[in-house]
C-alpha cells in the first residue's frame, strides 16, 4: 500500500512539475491521435454520406463491412499493417515502419469505420427529414451532401470526438507498428504498458491520470454538443 501511495505522490509531482518526458509523451500522443482522426475524417465523412444517399449494387454489403470494421481487433490491424510496411512488404520501400506515421495510419484504420458509420446514420436521418424540401429546391442527393453535413455538424462533431477517444485509448496496433521507441514513437498507452511492466508506477499513473482527463473532456464535449443541438431544435 505504501508503494501505491508513493507512486501517486510521485505521479502528481510529475504532473504539477510538467516533467519534460511526460509532456513529450502527451504531446506526441495528441499529435498522433489528432492526425489519425483528421485522416479518418477526410475519408469517413464523404464515404459515410455516400453510403447514406447513394443506391448501388452491393450497398448492403458495404454497410455490413463498415459496421463489422468498427469491431476490428487492434492487434490484427497492427499485424496486417506491420506485414505491409515491413521491408519485405509491398510498402516497405517507404520506410514507415516504427515511425509516428505508421501509428497514425493504424489509428486511422481503427477510427475510420466509426466516423463512417456515425456519419452515414446522421446524414441518412437528415435526408429522411428534409428530402422533400431539398428536392423541391431542385437538389439531388449528391448536391445535398454539403447542406446535410453542415446541418448535421453537431452529430458529426460527436462522431469525431468518438473517434478521437478511440484513438487515444489505442495500444495494441500502435505498439506493433510503432515499436514504442523512446523519443520517437512512445505514446501514453504504450508507455503505461511499458512502465507498469517495469514497476515504475509514477510515470504510468501520471499518464493514466492524463488519459482519464482526456476521456472525461471528450465525453463532456460530446454531451454539451448534444445538449446544444437538442436546445436549438427545441427552440
Helical amount: over 70%
Distance between the termini: 54 Å
CATH superfamily: MetI-like
Count of individual beta strands: 0
Structural class, judged by helices and strands? mainly alpha
Low-pLDDT segments, ≥5 res? none
The CATH topology is what? MetI-like fold
Shape: globular
CATH architecture: Orthogonal Bundle
> Could you name the CATH class?
Mainly Alpha
Tally of structural domains: 1
Mean pLDDT: 87
Order of helices and strands: HHHHHHHHHH
- Strand-residue fraction? under 5%
Over all CA atoms, what is the radius of gyration? 21 Å
**Number of helical stretches of at least 4 residues:** 10
Main sheet attributes: strand count, strand direction, barrel closure: none
Q: Topology, pairings included?
A:
Elements lengths: L1 H15 L3 H34 L5 H11 L4 H12 L14 H37 L4 H11 L1 H16 L3 H7 L9 H11 L2 H34 L1
Helix pairs in contact: 1-10, 2-5, 2-6, 2-7, 3-5, 4-5, 4-8, 5-6, 5-7, 5-8, 7-10, 9-10
In short:
The protein is mainly α. It has helices spanning 2-16, 20-53, 59-69, 74-85, 100-136, 141-151, 153-168, 172-178, 188-198, 201-234.
Characterize the structure shown.
Helix 1 crosses helix 10 (201-234), helix 2 packs antiparallel against helix 6 (141-151) and helix 7 packs antiparallel against helix 10 (201-234). The longest helix is centred in the middle third of the chain and has 37 residues, at 100-136. This protein has helices at 2-16, 20-53, 59-69, 74-85, 100-136, 141-151, 153-168, 172-178, 188-198, 201-234. The N and C termini lie far apart (54 Å). The protein has a single domain, classed as MetI-like (MetI-like fold), CATH 1.10.3720.10. The chain contains 10 helices and no strands. The chain is an all-alpha fold and 235 residues long.
Amino acid at each position: 500500500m505504501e508503494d501505491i501511495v508513493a507512486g501517486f505522490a510521485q505521479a502528481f509531482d510529475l504532473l504539477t512539475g510538467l516533467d519534460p518526458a511526460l509532456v513529450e509523451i502527451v504531446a506526441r500522443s495528441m499529435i498522433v491521435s489528432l492526425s489519425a482522426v483528421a485522416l479518418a475524417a477526410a475519408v469517413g465523412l464523404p464515404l459515410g454520406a455516400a453510403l447514406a444517399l447513394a443506391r448501388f449494387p452491393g450497398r448492403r454489403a458495404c454497410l455490413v463491412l463498415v459496421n463489422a470494421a468498427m469491431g476490428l481487433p487492434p492487434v490484427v490491424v497492427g499485424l496486417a499493417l506491420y506485414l505491409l510496411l515491413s521491408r519485405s512488404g509491398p510498402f516497405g520501400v517507404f520506410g514507415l515502419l516504427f515511425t509516428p506515421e505508421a501509428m497514425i495510419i493504424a489509428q486511422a484504420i481503427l477510427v475510420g469505420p466509426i466516423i463512417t458509420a456515425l456519419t452515414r446514420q446522421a446524414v441518412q436521418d437528415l435526408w429522411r427529414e428534409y428530402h422533400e424540401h431539398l428536392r423541391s429546391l431542385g437538389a439531388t442527393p449528391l448536391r445535398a451532401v454539403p447542406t446535410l453535413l453542415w446541418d448535421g455538424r453537431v452529430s458529426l462533431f460527436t462522431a469525431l470526438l468518438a473517434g478521437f477517444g478511440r484513438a487515444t485509448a489505442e495500444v495494441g496496433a500502435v505498439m506493433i507498428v510503432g515499436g514504442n521507441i523512446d523519443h520517437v514513437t512512445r505514446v501514453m498507452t504504450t508507455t503505461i504498458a511499458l512502465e507498469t511492466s517495469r514497476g515504475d508506477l509514477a510515470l504510468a499513473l501520471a499518464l493514466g491520470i492524463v488519459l482519464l482527463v482526456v476521456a472525461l473532456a471528450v465525453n463532456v464535449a460530446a454531451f454539451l454538443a448534444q445538449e446544444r443541438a437538442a436546445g436549438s431544435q427545441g427552440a
